[in-house]
Amino acid sequence: xxxxxxxxxxxxxxxxxxxxxxxxxxxxxxxxxxxxxxxxxxxxxxxxxxxxxxxxxxxxxxxxxxxxxxxxxxxxxxxxxxxxxxxxxxxxxxxxxxxxxxxxxxxxxxxxxxxxxxxxxxxxxxxxxxxxxxxxxxxxxxxxxxxxxxxxxxxxxxxxxxxxxxxxxxxxxxxxxxxxxxxxxxxxxxxxxxxxxxxxxxxxxxxxxxxxxxxxxxxxxxxxxxxxxxxxxxxxxxxxxxxxxxxxxxxxxxxxxxxxxxxxxxxxxxxxxxxxxxxxxxxxxxxxxxxxxxxxxxxxxxxxxxxxxxxxxxxxxxxxxxxxxxxxxxxxxxxxxxxxxxxxxxxxxxxxxxxxxxxxxxxxxxxxxxxxxxxxxxxxxxxxxxxxxxxxxxxxxxxxxxxxxxxxxxxxxxxxxxxxxxxxxxxxxxxxxxxxxxxxxxxxxxxxxxxxxxxxxxxxxxxxxxxxxxxxxxxxxxxxxxxxxxxxxxxxxxxxxxxxxxxxxxxxxxxxxxxxxxxxxxxxxxxxxxxxxxxxxxxxxxxxxxxxxxxxxxxxxxxxxxxxxxxxxxxxxxxxxxxxxxxxxxxxxxxxxxxxxxxxxxxxxxxxxxxxxxxxxxxxxxxxxxxxxxxxxxxxxxxxxxxxxxxxxxxxxxxxxxxxxxxxxxxxxxxxxxxxxxxxxxxxxxxxxxxxxxxxxxxxxxxxxxxxxxxxxxxxxxxxxxxxxxxxxxxxxxxxxxxxxxxxxxxx
Length: 748
Known about the structure:
alpha/beta, Chitobiase, domain 2, TIM Barrel, six-stranded mixed β-sheet, disordered N terminus
């Protein structure tokens, strides 16, 4: 009894704390229309401003408000010119510093220059950069009156200038340690990302953010050949074409920012003579038309042998036979590409091959069949096994509750090392994940850092760091950029500086406490795969009875309703999202569909860890709310948004728990025989609905103030304030009509 009272008191305090915070945050933050963030990225996000209270400390130098120059070689490559312009823009707009750009015929006297930021390749700056080893490496040297950054090449010098911006952002002022001397080696040959805005949406101001966050390439045109040549696969039938000239224009614009370009090649390979000739012709045409492209990704979702299948859906087909034939197609593509340009990177990615832990030998077999001229692209965490209370499962999609690499990926890496490929790349999320695919980033920095360490430990040479949800600038991606080079700050130091910038001096400990609790929460969060739970639970309805259809039905037609629904991805009873992204009960009451969704675990075990994850999020949120509430007035709006984003993640967890419990109660109600049991079940369902209603109102108001939330461009928005409102309507209908009518019919 005492324990129950304590739990109730704790829930009341939690609710009061949240309501008090939301009252302030919702009042302070303006409402955004859906897609507002796309417009913000197109015109360029406002830079982080200079802290008016910042003062130069002992041991620091300052880029003065006037009289300074950025000096680069007159013959520098275009990306270095652009980086100088971006630094000039940042200093002017954010740091209130006016600098000129000087294009010098020689940097030989770089040591003698004063009030200058000098940047160039080490060959142009004698005595600088002698320890640099490869492209993207750079060295920064500061004194009381000058800064020098030299790169292994111009691209390295470019990244050195962008790192200066990152340092100024952390310090919130144009100050650097006057004895700064860092040599930074790039840990990755390539860091690719997809757009976080849309399939082919890369506005210039958005492109300008990519090298700032350490990316050196984009993967663009996924599921469409760059020359619009027809392809096949699960996404092909509804794929749009590139507008004329769009690819060439994008290649031209990315080159300005020092961003390389990877594209797919899609082909249905059968192995017969005519089909082989067609593949050779396609590769020649693409490579010839787009000589600027750095590499090609041969992903099994569009480059496959005979029959496409989803991961684990190969049926009785012998996977090793399929691998051998698919690898022959890869070899043909690589051969043709390398005839034209031997430096081209050909990245075979066998994502759809079964990644369960027991398939480690089969996945390793792939590495024995691929041509050595290629660079295997592996999937880092998918398939990683984990255990909850003795019940075993594995990751069914991109996730961060497990660090990785998966057992199958470990086997592939070991087999590939024996073959001595040119390099090994991996798809590895580093700041966002499909596990909560409707968020621009996930505030689990300690867990993310473990993944960065694992990528380094397993010597991954290159990364594709997002899939369809793409990149949006955020502080976790900023943290990732630091750890993509050597000589990064210690984690606690870096996070403390980020916390100070985001929440103000004096609130660092509260922010770090929150991030630790959030990182602990995700470690116990049970993976649910690529479906409704962690992606859309807060907008997923709770069904007491089968609703009236909201779109066309075919239940009396010769057309099979279920087949049509699968093909269209829409359920006419809740047509607001793809059918897999909300929980649909079995209204025949023969089975609990939650058990099918949970798969590996029993409902009690799954719910136990779901609740534990949400509770740990709450522990962090208590500190997070305090940090935002105490933030200086100028920082408070952005601090409120940080907290609301984390609140929305926790609401996903709580709503997922409620939906699963509600379905169990609904089935129990159907089977209950006596009136007392039915009344008790209805009382609990009513209480759950009221709790969920309060969460849903908060979710709607949060989504109204942050247009990034709910967006994942494969389906545009998975939820919007309008679709959350539809859930609210159903909750009210259930509370006001459906449950009272049930009580009346059954004399309860």
